[in-house]
Design goal:
single chain, two-stranded antiparallel sheet, mainly alpha
Amino acid sequence: MNKSKLSIFLRGIIAENPVLILVLGTCPAIAVSTSIVSAISMGLAATVVLLGSNVVISLLRKIIPDTVRIPCYIVVIAAFVTLVEMLLHAFVEPIYNLLGIWLPLIVVNCIVLGRAEMFARKNNPLDSALDGLGMGIGFLVALLSMAIFREILGEGTILKGLESFNVQPINLLFKIAEDGTMVYDFRIPILAKAPGGFLVFGILIAVMNKITAKKGGVKRKSFSCDGCPSAHLCTKTSCSEITELATDAEESSTENKEVDENA
């Protein structure tokens, strides 16, 4: 794998992590990150859908009419989600039940549709496959990072959700009571709930921003295309053109204000 291909793959894991940098897929990230098992399951399912839909959309990019591309993308994505859902239901039903409604909702996940629109329709199948795989792994890493904190510190266990496979959760946070029995201790119950999910989510975003800043990331004080991680993929207009238009508009506004004051 050459350097350009490797950069496409790695970009979605850290530099453009879909959850912690682009802040996409927040709802499923918070909902399924209550346990490590559900986080890994959702991450793998989304990765399969991303990989498959990116490749198919890239192959059909010259055939799909531009006016109906979004509905076509949704049909392709829905086909892969249905396939994953049927396979899990048939062979791994406990995981299917564990993910619940969030599994079919991958169809409307911003990450999947966003990569189809921003990358797959403009690049060849190999690059699109690498992009989908990298974004999927980035999504998995973000979910797993949240789940590790939320399950261990919130529930005091690990591997919760595998009871149907005769695998009991491992108790990590416990103490020995006066009667000799082991009881849970040092848990932070709020972390297992939605507010705790937002708290962990915010902390991880701050950590990721710190990491990317140390690697040469530039903090931008203005909100424009220059600050968008996917700006280099947009072909409608360039960032330089937008910057020039904004500068011209600002100068024109200043000149008009000076004329009005002089008048």
